[in-house]
Amino acid sequence: VQVDGRADADGDERALVELARADPAAFAELYRRYLPRVHAFAYRRTGVIEVAEDITSAAFERALRNLDAFAWRPGGFGPWLFRIVANELADHYRRTGRAASPRTAGAAVRLQAAAPRDPADEVGERAAVAELLAAMDRLSPRYQRALELRYLAGLTPDEAATALGTSKATMAVVVHRATRALRRALAEEPRP
Amino acid sequence: VNDDVRRRLDDAGRRAVPEPDPAFVDALEARLRAVGASLPPDATRPPRRRGPATRWGMAGAGAVLAGLGLAVVLVSGLLWPRPAPGPGPELDEPVNVVVALADGTVLEDPDGLLLSEGAVVTVGAGGSARIGDTVLEPGDVVTVQDGRLEVEHASPVAVVPGATPTPTARPGESRRPGTPPPTDRPARTPSPTPRATPAPTPSPERTPAPTREPTPAPTPTDAPATAAPTPTPTPAILRPRLRARLIDGPRIAVTWTETWRARSYVLIVTVSRSGPAADPLYPLAPGSRVVGEFATPPERPLRFRVPDGIAEVRVMVVALRGDGSVLRRSRIVTITIPPPGDATGDPGASPSPGTSPGPTPSPTPTPTPAPRPPPPGPRLRPPGPDLAGPLVGAAAGVGSGPMVDEPQTATAAAATRSAAREDRPEATRSIEGIADVFRSHGYIAERSLATTVFLALELGRPLLLEGEAGVGKTELAKVLATSLGTRLIRLQCYEGLDVNTAVYEWNYPRQMLEIRLLEARGEIAKATAHDIFGPEFLLKRPLLQALEDDAGTAPVLLIDEIDRADEEFEAYLLEILSDFQVTVPEIGTIRAVRPPRVILTSNRTREVHDALKRRCLYHWIDYPTAAKEYEIVSTRVPDAPHQLAREVVAFVHRLRTADLTKVPGVAETLDWAGALLSLGATELEPDLVDETLGVVLKYEEDIRQVRGATTRQYLAEAGAGG
After folding, report:
1. Which terminal residue of chain A has fewer beta carbons within 10 Å of its beta carbon, N or C?
2. Is B337 on the interface with A (CB under 8 A)?
């Protein structure tokens, strides 16, 4: 049943993508289907609602414009879309140079604290997460993408590998190395 | 080994996430529909991912310009010789084309280039481009349609010419690198119809042609217009798209796009005289200054003059919600100002462009986003947010800042200094006098110390006191203030102490309140930076207080435990201690009327820098001799019986020779004597000592080591000694 359901969903999605290619208005269905996950991914990675919304907007718009370039793969539309999100995230960090600027990171944390819609999570937990995310900023874009897609995007390992554009085995290796790098990044002082 | 990191990642991945804001969801969907509608239907959409040959084939659709995977297309001004009658300017004029390649080569064709119907201009990654008022970014695609420019922006962020753009070119559309510059393109026609001078350019409005309206306002030819707001039907859901660039003057032209849900926009600037400027921050941090708050993006670029000596400017726009909270921040645009040599100033040019009254009042008159240069001098490595740039003297040169003082001259400082001498009470004008006055206030000073204090007062030099904790360094400052009959201003140092805490900080809530008030009174448009950067919005921290103190006599400024502050702060202090002035860029230089008497203390947890030491007189305060300490005890705890005082002092002295984690200082001796006195003791008893050791020794190991047998032994020795 599961397999059938999955296949159905895939077939359904494939049809949606084809439809959207011909008529961009049909993209709305894909959008509604993926928005919560994309938004959650961007938020988990950035920790700032405003930035998450920016990333989400940019990713969907880019996906819509480049729908033609999407070649159907098993696993569906999701991995492709998340790859775009991961690219947007990488662009975001490259643009803001946040990795090099604890100051902006501080501002982001402050903004987050001020954001009215901020979930009332415990302060310590938020600090721990912020530290983790800040350490991720200092990794190479490829490692960032690997960790994001593996842990923060809510994808299955298969989907994450597809999104990263590698085999599952390669993904595991990259994730392992990225984790090691992250561990080192956590241990060292943020660059002044 | 990586398990803990994995666990943290897992946790981060499972973290609860707020639901997307429904308003955002709807708006983005509407936006996507609009984007979708603007895309050509599948059949006619330009094919992507074809071979290069096929891509070249696209030229058939009209002239294909640029591309240039890594190049920039700069179609400079001089386009559209007349305001278009219809919805937009017509493009049947030859356009003067300048192409800047990524390697810096600039190619210009004076005859211009005809952009024919259907022409497509694609800006490759690696730079930005301009067509008249339209600034293009990498990935932007411009089509000539119905005789007008249709601009489709690929990226939500602005790219300033000169800044490194983020390559965002969309796949199928960028040409391969190495494409010949447009000047070689077949499309180029040597201006067959030399129509009028290309002087007047149409309004800076651009982009979606449908909404464009003819705006006859001429744009200065000397300042090839900046991009202007993009009045899209759907405002950008993304952050405000900020464009800022350098025009001659040197001036900076700034504009940004409307942002969905934004109620107002705050334009924030930071500048630096040396090296990179700090990032603008909102809420405001020192160093960032508000240039103005606007209800809507300006219709034409705002222009600001850049004062001499500024090396770099960073600009950011923050879109605010109705309640004043931050909605979005634009990206930060960094503009490097060429040294004065290159920038041939054009004093006359400034009035020409910006003055044309646009619908949105432009704060052009604002004397440049004055440099709120992040502090420190060139010799300092920018330490942190706020210690990075020359603070002192930074404003000198902010030409337009009306309130800036000329830097004080050394002679003037000397004069002030000698005048200050007359301020001193008679009693403090001799070494003996100081020792006596101190004694009368309960401070027993060795002669060497009294001499140093006297010299410090006489020479107007700061006094650096080092010594073990509890020998009376801080106390000396207090007594000095009392003796001089003046106020003590104390700055307690700690790691991470910064200018905000030490010198001044802008009262941000008050500034916001003022902005609201101005808004309510409808005066916000006329407001200048000075309206919210006046002295009344300044929160004075100890160093500034010490300089500004006008109580009639120079205050005593105690900079306590300087060794705990960061070295950057120490370096910053050098500036203040040599000139006794502080520059607040927005206000000017604040100079001490009467230089404060400065006392620095250090516990020597690290070595104070030589440069600082050189500016100070130095004295090492040692533990006093037993006789001196007895005198101190009897002065400070006069009720203590002689016997008790003597024994306490003897015992403490014995303790100081013991191998303890932390030996007691004079402060402990006094505390102990006081404690014993309040217990009614008249002499030291072993049990009494054991019970009260906590007053003298502050480490459990020390107490355990001394209590019992050792106490008795020491008592015996002390008794023998005393």
Report:
1. N
2. no
- Indicate yes or no: pTM above 0.80: no
The ipTM of this complex is 0.77
Is B383 in contact with A36 (Cβ distance < 8 A)? no
Give the residue with greater pLDDT, B286 vs B293: B293
Smallest Cβ distance to A35: which of B25, B41, B383? B25
| CB–CB contact B156 A54 (8 Å) | yes
Judged against a pLDDT cut of 80, whether residue A11 lies above it is answered with: no
Instruction: Of A133-142, B407-416, B653-662, give the lowest mean pLDDT range.
Output: B407-416
Q: Round to whole Å and give the CA distance between B577 and B211.
A: 60
CB pair distance less than 8 Å for B16 and A119: yes
Mark which residues 144-173 of B lie under 8 Å from A by CB: 156-157, 166, 168, 170-172
* CB-based contact B313:B369 (threshold 8 Å): yes
State the residue for tokens 């109580």.
B551
Comparing CB atoms, the residue among A24, A53, A54 nearest residue B36 is A24
Query: What percent of chain B has pLDDT above 70?
Result: 58
Question: A58-116, pLDDT tens digit by residue?
Answer: 899 888 888 887 877 777 788 889 988 988 887 776 665 444 344 444 444 443 443 43
Residues 6 or more apart whose CB falls under 8 angstroms from that of A65 comprise B35, B39, B170
> Hey, which residues 128-147 in chain B have their CB within 8 Å of chain A?
none
Alpha helices by DSSP H, listed for B567-662, are 567-579, 610-615, 626-636, 642-657
Cα angle: B266, vertex B270, B272; to 5 degrees: 170
Interface A:B, Cβ pairs < 8 A: 153
CB B553 within 8 A of CB B595: no
Burial label for B268, CB within 10 Å (0-12, 13-18, 19+), is buried
Residue type, B634: S
pLDDT recorded at residue B138: 59
A168 and chain B in contact, CB less than 8 A: no
Residue of B nearest to A19 (CA): B42
Token readout for B272 is 């630096």
Single-letter amino acid, residue B177 = P
Residue whose entry in the numeric block shows the structure tokens 């302060």:
A123
Find the CB nearest B18 among A43, A133, A147.
A43
Tokens of B359: 């619908």
Mean pLDDT of B688-710: 88
Give the H/E segment covering residue B448: helix B447-459
Give the C-alpha separation, B673 to B664, whole Å. Answer: 13
pLDDT digits (tens, 9 = 90+) for B203-238: 333 333 333 333 333 333 333 333 333 333 345 556
A14 interface with B at CB cutoff 8 Å? no
Instruction: Calculate ∠ Cα B646-B652-B654, nearest 5°.
Output: 105
Contact A192/B383, CB-based, under 8 Å? yes
% pLDDT > 90, chain B: 4
Give the burial class of B447: count Cβ atoms within 10 A of its Cβ; 0-12 exposed, 13-18 middle, 19 or more buried.
exposed
Alpha-carbon gap, residue B628 to B646, rounded angstroms: 11
Under a CB-based contact definition with an 8 Å cutoff, are residues B330 and B158 in contact?
yes
Assess A18–B contact: CB distance below 8 Å, yes or no: no
Q: What is the pLDDT of residue B80?
A: 32
Q: Do A94 and B166 touch (CB under 8 A)?
A: yes
Number of CB atoms found within 10 A of residue B620's CB: 14
Within 10 A of B120 (CB to CB), how many other CB atoms are there?
Answer: 22
Residue B17: is its pLDDT beyond 70?
yes
